[in-house]
Fold this sequence. Notes:
Blueprint: H1 8-16, H2 20-24, H3 28-36, H4 58-68, H5 71-78, H6 85-94, E1 97-99, E2 114-116, E3 119-121, E4 125-127, H7 141-150, E5 156-158, H8 163-170, E6 175-178, H9 183-191, E7 196-200, H10 210-218, H11 229-232, H12 247-251, H13 255-258, H14 265-274, E8 278-282, H15 287-295, E9 300-303, H16 317-328, E10 333-336, H17 343-351, E11 356-359, H18 361-393, E12 406-408
Amino acid sequence: MVEHSSDRRAFLRFLAASPVLAAAGLSSDWFSGLLSEPISAQEQNTYIIKTVREALNVFDFRAAARAKLSLPHFTEFDEGVFNQETQIADRNAYARYQLKVRRLLGISQVDQSTQLFGRTWESPLYLCPVGRLRAIHPDGNLAIAPAANRKRTLEIMSGTQDLEKVNQLRGEPVWICGGRPSAETIKRLESVGTPAYVWTVDTVGGGNQIGARAVQRAGVPNLERRNDARCSSCHDSEGRITLSDSMAEVIGALGSLRGNDTSTWADVRRVRDLTKMKLILKGVVAPEDAELAIKAGVDGIVVSTHAAHEDASGRGSLEWLPEVVAAVGGKIAVFHDSGIRSGADIFKALALGANAVGIGRAQAWSLASFGTEGVETVIELLRRELQVAMVQTGATSISRISKSMLIPVSGSVSSRMQ
């Protein structure tokens, strides 16, 4: 494996100047394009925080995770598919809206409490399902659950590994996310009181993380899995990657690893008839599909690009959101994720109609760098930032946040913000 201090951008610079590109069948222009895109000041941050108390924003956790993880593992959680079009669009979409701040409102406190399916949460911020967490922390979801419990935050877990242990640490059953559930899976989840099943419907065709696959094809050294305790802790028989010794192949997101969901709306209706759990479809972005989801009897949808790990549309999740909200018309719950990096981002998604807003990469970065304490801290940071946005716009409660508090920015947004 490469050294933990390796930097993805330095790695790309190496590739751009290397004969490896020719062997991989990619032009130097392709990698140079990735390097020349303007990036935010936060992404350029090179200071590595030593404790969570030093963290100023979520990007501090990104830098800490980058320094701690092997390059393949960091890249798996940081890179989008194809030429990064959707990942870039996810971030740029938030810059297309500004907050309409008000003055002399006399607001000292705001209420972030949020109602979802009759349950009250302390904030609309929730923890997205993130797979393969043991690749970045030995305890995986077992380290997430205590943070969600202490912060009284909605947690959606990817898969059912350690389900009973996670529920115990969480203090109550977590929501579960996965592919099309079998009758056996539904029976197991219902037996432990799972409130909701989130069905990921956007794993269609398989992801394609081009940079990593090109490296694998060219045979770049030092990306092989080693037979030591660190690698074996996540490359084992418990539902994690076992098919290849190549770390580049793992982060290459081959179609056989990502999967290809061939489900139909008829399958959704069949699952709906099988369970009394709340049924939520994750990855619905077209308003036409939102209307079909309502007809199929689901309880909610997640407007999501899968953090640009699956979606090749080149369109940001936030761009889809108002169209989906309009199509839903308040009939079912609308969740939102992808590209969230600040409390202001959360505010913008809420203003455009989301009922709750999730974090994925920020959650992974904080877990990788500081474990449970990191996840707790990133939740608290984002809540404080959301509070600032609410106070400055005059929204004393989540229900008072509206589209009128946003100012659309005319013209295109060209800067890349990670």
